[in-house]
Write a structure and sequence with these properties.
By secondary structure, this protein is mainly β. The protein has one domain: Immunoglobulin-like, CATH 2.60.40.740. Helices cover 14% and strands 48% of the residues. The protein is built from one helix and ten strands. The strands form two sheets. Strands 1, 2, 4, 5 and 8 form a five-stranded antiparallel beta sheet that branches. Strands 6-7-3-9-10 form a five-stranded antiparallel beta sheet, with no helix packed on it. The longest helix has 23 residues. It comes from Leptolyngbya boryana NIES-2135. InterPro entries: DUF2808. Pfam families: DUF2808. Keywords: Plasmid, Signal.
Length: 159
């Protein structure tokens, strides 16, 4: 009987701990990565374009970050980043490129319901092996310093 009581107490404690941890995680179900692709998708191409589409949900976005995977097996370099809307009009954005991430800050924020297209131009990798790159995408809303996970851009390259 004591074993059953102890098991029940531990189960309730673990459930409460996990539930409270999940409740504090900022998960966005409204803002999503809708597509991602490499043009051309061959690794021998020295100036590829990684194209990522993001749909903004109910809250406007002031910043987007595309992070290089932490355990990336090869180095990756980005030449520049451009952001357009669905009509092809270039949006006013300040971009910051580093070896670990691409940060894009929007001068007027991206309105709710909008879809934006991010082009990471002149992408170069240090290896010649086809890979599946998984880039986590994060966003920030106006007046918030907390990053919200928007999804993962899956870029496939081939030999």
């Amino acid at each position: 009987m004591q074993r059953l009581t102890l098991t029940a107490a531990v189960t309730v404690l673990l459930t409460a701990t996990i539930s409270s941890a999940l409740a504090q995680m900022p998960i966005s179900k409204e803002k999503t990565v809708i597509h991602s692709v490499a043009y051309p998708n061959r690794v021998k191409v020295t100036r590829a374009i990684y194209h990522i589409g993001v749909q903004v949900g109910a809250i406007p976005l002031s910043e987007i970050r595309v992070k290089v995977p932490e355990n990336a097996p090869a180095q990756i370099r980005f030449g520049q980043a451009t952001v357009t809307d669905t009509t092809g009009k270039t949006l006013n954005a300040n971009t910051s490129l580093s070896e670990k991430e691409v940060a894009i800050a929007f001068a007027p924020s991206i309105a709710a319901g909008e879809t934006i297209e991010i082009d990471l131009n002149n992408v170069r990798t240090s290896d010649l092996i086809g890979r599946t790159w998984l880039f986590p995408i994060y966003g920030k809303t106006i007046g918030s310093a907390q990053e919200i996970p928007l999804g993962t851009a899956r870029i496939q390259t081939y030999q």
